[in-house]
Structure to design on (217 residues):
């Protein structure tokens, strides 16, 4: 029993195993896919697809949530130099019309379409995947297990964080430059004072409740 406990507590690190296995089956190029922004109350959902070069993988790639902002920014700069990157998005209107899951799948498909090099295989974070013109497999917690997905998580998060900071200048008072649109206390105070605006996801229960109560910008 102690041995099992120790093994359970061992921290897994992302590696290139999944990409190498797909490549060995002749399925390359292999891209990793991840998203940022499923949970926030405001702003688009952003997805990224990344094809890494096996001989030039930036050290330190990991789940974006485990990295500092400065480290994410530095890794993105390096990825822009050595990787093939595609970015896709689904707008607030699409999130409200389709639902957040379908909008996320749409953003992922758009990210793959944005790649300059067509992938032969895709590794997708989570347990759901979009329809793609190539083979794919899903990996639960893939951003912590697979380097290509970790890279995609970094690209998606930095891209979305930058966009939310820009939106914060257009729509001040919600703290989006700090909370990226998540339902933090600061965001809730802003909503109570200013009401929802065009960048808020009206299909999300907290925003819908405010609108039903008659509060709007």
């Amino acid at each position: 029993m102690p041995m099992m406990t120790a093994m359970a507590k061992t921290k897994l690190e992302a590696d290139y195993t999944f990409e190498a296995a797909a490549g060995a089956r002749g399925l390359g190029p292999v891209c990793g896919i991840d998203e940022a922004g499923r949970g926030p109350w405001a702003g688009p959902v952003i997805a990224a697809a990344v094809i890494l070069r096996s001989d030039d993988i930036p050290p330190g790639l990991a789940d974006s949530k485990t990295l500092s902002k400065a480290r994410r920014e530095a890794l993105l700069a390096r990825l822009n130099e050595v990787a093939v990157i595609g970015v896709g998005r689904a707008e607030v209107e699409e999130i409200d019309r389709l639902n957040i899951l379908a909008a996320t799948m749409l953003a992922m498909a758009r990210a793959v379409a944005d790649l300059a090099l067509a992938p032969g295989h895709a590794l997708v974070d989570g347990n759901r995947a979009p329809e793609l013109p190539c083979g794919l497999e899903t990996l639960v917690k893939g951003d912590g297990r697979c380097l290509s997905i970790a890279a995609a998580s970094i690209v998606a998060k930095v891209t979305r964080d930058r966009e939310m900071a820009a939106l914060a200048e257009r729509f001040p008072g919600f703290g989006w430059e700090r909370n990226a649109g998540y339902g933090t206390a600061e965001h809730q105070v802003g909503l109570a004072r200013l009401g929802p605006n065009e960048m808020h996801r009206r299909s999300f229960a907290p925003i819908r409740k405010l609108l039903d109560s008659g509060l709007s910008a």
